Amino acid sequence: MRRPVALVADGGLVDEVLHAAAVAGCELERVVDVTALRGRWHSASAVLLDEGAVLACEAAGFPRRPGVHVVGAGPPGAEVWRRALALGAEQVLELPADHDRLRAVLADAAEGVPEGAGKVLAVLGARGGAGASVLAVAVGQAVLAAGGHGLLVDCDPLGGGLDLTLGAERQEGLRWPTLRLTGGRVPASALRSALPGRSGRRGALTVLSCGRTGPGPEPEAVVAVVEAGRRAGDTVVCDVPRQLTAAGCAALDRSDLAVLVVPADVKACMAAKPLVERTAERGVRLKAVVRGPAPGGLTTAQVVEAIGVPLLTTMRPEPRLARALDNGRFPRATRGPLAKAAREVLAALHAH
Ligand SMILES: Nc1ncnc2c1ncn2[C@@H]1O[C@H](COP(=O)(O)OP(=O)(O)OP(=O)(O)O)[C@@H](O)[C@H]1O
Ligand SMILES: [Mg+2]
User: Fold this and answer.
1) How many domains does the chain have?
2) Which of 95, 111, 127 is the last residue of a domain?
3) Cα-Cα end-to-end distance for the chain
4) pTM over cut 0.85
5) CA 214–ligand 1 middle distance (angstroms)
6) Which domain holds residue 148?
7) 118 alpha carbon to ligand 2 midpoint, in Å?
8) What is the mean pLDDT of each successive set of 10 residues along the chain, which is 352 residues long?
9) Is 342 in the pocket of ligand 1 (CB under 6 A)?
């Protein structure tokens, strides 16, 4: 585990830093001088320096590195600033005023993953019952099968709960109404331990589901959860309602890719149009997954032309799916049309 390291001498500042680390759940290593710091300079996930330490590090000829933060009781002098910049310092944190920012720095450092490591996928259905929630869960399963960490985020309060689709509705753990999150910063580790889901030999799949009753998430809460998953390197899969609520848009706007599940029928093609327009206005990167069967004989090419969205893949109906879902079992098979389509969606997300 790469821990952050601090070279801070002033007693008051030390207390502030230790307090912020404790609140962020971050194990912080303190060193007493530049000699002790030298061996940790490159390996620490972040470095906190007070003004004296900045001067000492520069005098010792330490090279630039990312993740250096200067802490002080007030604004640093120009000379300290110049030397701090030479070390690669990102910011100066005045304590106690900047306590929250320091806590955020330490929370990131504790997670030990570079900012922006995870990918965010949004899944939409062209019409009601298109199979969007099913595909969202299937993509989460594909992440788990590949040994990764997936986070399913249910943005549809009228969808009956995504935990139900996953077959996790009887599991304990928080849902949106009980999480009572209003925004701000959430550590991914706290989310993972509070939410229901499944774990594999290496990875895990967690679900933040809407409840059967109670309100859906506020947009700020969706942002907080999506960004927590992204920071932790998770693949975040958001089930977005077609009504494009504010919470749904918050997820869409943060997505690296959005997929539109389009059943191969005329009604779905027509219903897709306003949705395609509205996502295009938001600058969302949208691709289509065309789902068979085609009762009227529509071809994939005709569907794609009608909706004006590039094709990601096609998907035959998954045999025995409805029955499995009704029995609270999401199919775990890694073969079959649904799992194959999910892997293709995942590949497209990571190719971006
Ligand atoms: N790939 C598939 N193969 C066969 N049947 C499917 C598939 N995907 C979904 N279904 C069937 O369609 C039903 C509705 O799927 P799902 O809940 O995913 O749709 P949705 O697009 O999320 O609908 P909603 O408008 O309620 O959000 C499922 O319960 C299942 O019976
Ligand atoms: Mg749905």
Assistant:
1) 2
2) 111
3) 29
4) no
5) 23
6) 119-351
7) 23
8) 89 95 92 93 91 95 88 88 86 90 87 71 98 98 95 97 97 93 80 91 94 94 92 94 96 95 98 96 93 97 98 97 96 94 97 80
9) no
